[in-house]
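Support reply, case 0932

Customer input (verbatim):
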Amino acid sequence: MISKEQIKFIRSLHRKKFRDSGQQFIIEGPKMIAEAIQYAPESLLKVFGTEPIQGKLPEHVVFEEIDNKTLGQISTLKHPQKQVAICSYLHNETTRPDFYIALDTIQDPGNLGTILRLASWFGVQHIIASKETADCYNPKVVQASMGAIFNVNIEYIDLKDAFEATDLPIYGSLLKGENIYKKEISKKGILVMGNEGNGISDELLSFITDPIAIPQFGNGESLNVAMATAVLLSEFSRPR
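Our regenerated output:
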């Protein structure tokens, strides 16, 4: 049986300060665990579940069977998904490719998780994020990423320093930018997405070499930042 101390420890990983202290985070459900096994097996430490996972666990990983009550105690979900696993923080590369995303104070965990998922879909392997951006190991981010947390690098840094040091074109998503459907864009560059309410911060605006915008065709008030990221990544991925 899982001990009270183990339950207490796993529940502590729901909070950032304890995740950072132990350099560990939790994932939930068969799909997320399968993604961890495929892309970052070394990060997977232990699996707790009401039933074993389908497939083979890495040799170093221990599975411990628990009941539904215990699953509910350690899960962050309203409707737990059979298994909860503990992972160590991921070793992310700091070498940046020719095209990547920069996130300026994205605060909603669901948005960050969705952007990670989009990056994975469009083959963007690296994201830099301001230190004020939501924690990528927040359970809501991890869940929304649908496993992309394991195959997209995310690096928390000072964006101003990064922009000062690059020679790449910097594309900023702005309301008054150039129509993305008419603009010539490069396969190399940095796509900057701003805060949900305030957009790209004033201190970063001067670094934007190529302001871009998604034109409005109807009467909608605005696009969610994750939706806008999807549209822009689609354009950057399209053969020209």
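We compared this against your earlier run and they match. Two observations from our side: Strands lie at 24-28, 44-49, 62-65, 83-88, 99-103, 126-129, 153-156, 170-179, 189-193, 210-213. The chain has a mean pLDDT of 94. Please reopen the case if you see a mismatch on your end.
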